[in-house]
Amino acid sequence: MAGPLIQLVGITKTFGTGAAAFQALKGVDMAIDRGDFVAVMGPSGSGKSTTMNILGCLDQPTAGVFRFLGQEVQSLTKDQRSLLRRRYLGFVFQGFNLLARTTAVENVELPLIYRGMGKTARRAAAMRALDRVGLGPWADHTPAELSGGQQQRVAIARALVTDPEVLLADEPTGNLDSERSVEIMKFLAELNEQGITILMVTHEPEMAAFAKTIIHFKDGLVENIERSDRAPLLAVSGEHA
Amino acid sequence: MLGTSLLLALREIRRHILRSFLTTLGIIIGVAAVITMVSLGRSVTANISDQISSLGSNVFFVFPIEGDRGQFRPFDERDVTAVREQIAGVKSVAGQVEANVSAVHNGQDWDSKVEGVNNEFLDARGIKMGEGRRFTEAEMEAGANVCIIGPTVQEEIFLPRQSPIGERLRLNNVDCQVIGVFATRGAVGGNGDDDNSVLMPLTNVQRRFTGNDNIGYMAISYDASYDSVTMTKSLIDLIRERRVLLDGQANDFDIVDTAQINETVASTVGTMTVMVAAIAAISLVVGGVGIMNIMLVSVTERTREIGIRLAIGALAREVQLQFLTEAVVLCCFGGLMGIFLGFALSYGLAGALGFDFIFDPFINVLSFVISALIGIVFGYFPARRASQLDPIEALRHE
Fold first, then answer.
1. What's the pTM?
2. How many Cβ atoms from other residues are within 10 Å of residue A179's Cβ?
3. Rounded to whole angstroms, how far apart are CA atoms B199 and B96?
4. Quick one: closest CA in A to B392, which residue?
5. Which DSSP state fits B75?
6. Greatest CA span in chain B, whole angstroms?
7. Sequential pLDDT tens for chain B (398 residues)
8. Are B391 and B302 in contact (CB under 8 A)?
9. Backbone φ and ψ of A139, nearest 5°
10. Of A71, B174, B322, B360, which sits 20 to 30 A from B93 (CA to CA)?
């Protein structure tokens, strides 16, 4: 497909109306190519979360054009956006957001259930995704029985199980200690090497350092875009299981 | 999509098994109450109908009562003849008189009663022969010393597995020959055991036991195609005329119509059943409100989960269907458990109260369908609320 994977042109977002109106985004332009690993940084209130919500098709811009795979998302209905998320996006959250009292494998299966996949295929795909994050042996454990790092890896497996085009990660290491954080970031970088486009919000420069592109937000605008020109962090061939 | 919702709903219910059970408790109790009440109502009606039909169906009983001036005037055989000849629609009419006796056979004795009757009485009361034969014309005419015994009498004083036919039986000072055993009539409530009785020709009992020509009551069986109200009126007119009652004097006799009793009892029990079932149905609705309450709490409690589902691509209507399915599945489970509980309760209660248990498929199916409907009605609002959550807000929810 020609052109960038994601393109934002003059995106604005206003919350509230009248005197209470607050403009969170004041005309954001950016383009993200397939295979990129983007870290979005900025102080709170800079509009990075709002942008991520729009990129994640969870929220609609007030004005502007948002193209995803060439499709103008801002004109889609709520259900169409849901289907877009289901088909192309994977989400990883700061708080892991796994279903409590639900085993790891059942959590990972969840997106496949909405895709209408049969039981056997679903279980097999979920197990593959868990193996990919190294948690195959923990498949039958509930989140309460897993450490924070493990929970986040289950969440990543859940995001990966549908083979998404883009992985959106909102402060994926925000609830983890630095050792686990590095572990998760290495894993994300590895996934990126395998071809998944990753968009990540973070406020930690050490984590952002794993990305290929860092976009800085300030006051509802893109302040600057930093391209890391160093070689891929890990010497991986991309032929991982 | 429905399969998906069902799967998710079942998982959710399994995950909160105790809460799910408590949620459905209202439905369980409601359904069980409705089913128990209706089944018991049916059992009671059937039981009473049974008792009444043991009196014979479409039968008038006419018996003397105290008149205005305290006089008590019995009927006699001429009244019986008059009814037979002058009332249209009468199939058979017979008088009966009875006395308490002590029945003795082979040194065994037993307190029973002797009833003076004829074959027409057997017809009117619908008494069937279990063994042996009825009276012959000659025996009735002559008042012969022959008798037909009831099953209780046979059981109490004759040897088991030995036919009493042809055996001698002594009733007080009267010796008679057993010619038959009548089939069980069943007990009529409050009347003692109708099977504990010895039937002898009427004239014999009048001569040997009561010492007069009186009869205790008349049993009149009538053709069901005749209107019992009209017949009752003609009967009253006839008997008043025969007893020379003036206008203004009250009847010194009473007429009981079994068809009428049957109808009255059935409709009374029916009304009561509907009333009690309606009260039970209220508990079913309360159960539904309970489901809605828990579902609403559950939606709030699971806001984050709903946010996750929406974020990973669940459609609003899929979330709505999931919650609706949860409510309906809960209610259906409740309905099923209620049916089992209701079955157990009505079976147990019917047994304890000595009624025959009657399984009514209609009320079982109806209760189940109503529970499912309650799930839909009371699940709709919480489900709609869940589906309308904003995924961003929902994910932020603590």
1. 0.71
2. 9
3. 10
4. A58
5. B
6. 104
7. 677 788 878 888 888 889 889 889 989 999 999 899 888 888 888 887 777 777 767 889 999 988 877 788 899 889 999 998 998 888 889 999 999 999 998 888 899 999 999 898 888 888 889 889 999 999 988 888 999 999 989 888 888 888 899 999 999 989 999 999 998 876 554 456 788 899 999 999 999 999 898 999 999 988 888 888 889 999 999 999 998 888 888 888 999 888 788 788 888 888 888 888 888 888 888 888 888 898 899 899 889 989 999 998 899 998 999 899 999 999 999 999 999 999 999 999 988 988 888 888 888 999 999 999 999 999 999 999 999 999 988 988 87
8. no
9. -55, -35
10. B174
CB pair distance less than 8 Å for A82 and B313 = yes
By the CB < 8 Å criterion, does B278 face chain A?
no
> Among A56, A59, A97, whose Cβ lies nearest the Cβ of B304?
A97
Q: Using a CB–CB cutoff of 8 Å, tell me whether B344 touches chain A.
A: no
> What b/e sequence results for B197-229 when a residue is b if at least 16 CB atoms lie within 10 Å of its CB, and e otherwise?
bbbbbbbbbbebbbeebebbbbbbbbeeebebe
Q: Token match 């799910």: residue?
A: B20
Question: What does the DSSP assignment read for A150-193?
Answer: HHHHHHHHHHHTT--SEEEEESTTTTS-HHHHHHHHHHHHHHHH
In 3D, which of B29, B50, B26, B27 has the Cα closest to residue B358? B50
List residues bridging with A217 in a β-sheet: A222
Burial profile A190-200: b = 16 or more Cβ within 10 angstroms, e = fewer: bbbbeebbbbb
**CA angle at A132 for the pair B391 and A167, rounded to the nearest 5°:** 35
Query: Taking CB atoms and an 8 Å cut-off, how many pairs form between chains A and B?
Result: 58
How far is residue A22's CA from residue A181's CA, in Å, rounded to a whole number?
34
Cβ distance A53 to B15 less than 8 Å, yes or no, reads no
ipTM over 0.90: no
Which tokens belong to B211? 């010492």
User: What angle (nearest 5°) sits at the alpha carbon of residue A130, between those of residues A187 and A194?
Assistant: 40
Beta-bridge partners for B147: B178
Helix locations, B2-16, DSSP H: 2-15
**Strand duo B168-171 + B198-201: pairing:** unpaired
Q: Widest CA span of chain A, in angstroms?
A: 56
Contact between B33 and B346 (Cβ < 8 Å): no
Put simply, whether A60 touches B (Cβ < 8 Å) is no
3-state secondary structure of B172: coil
- Which residues neighbour B369 within 8 Å (Cβ) at sequence distance 6 or greater? none
User: What is the Cα–Cα distance from B315 to B6, expressed in whole angstroms?
Assistant: 15
Judged by DSSP in three states, B124 sits in helix
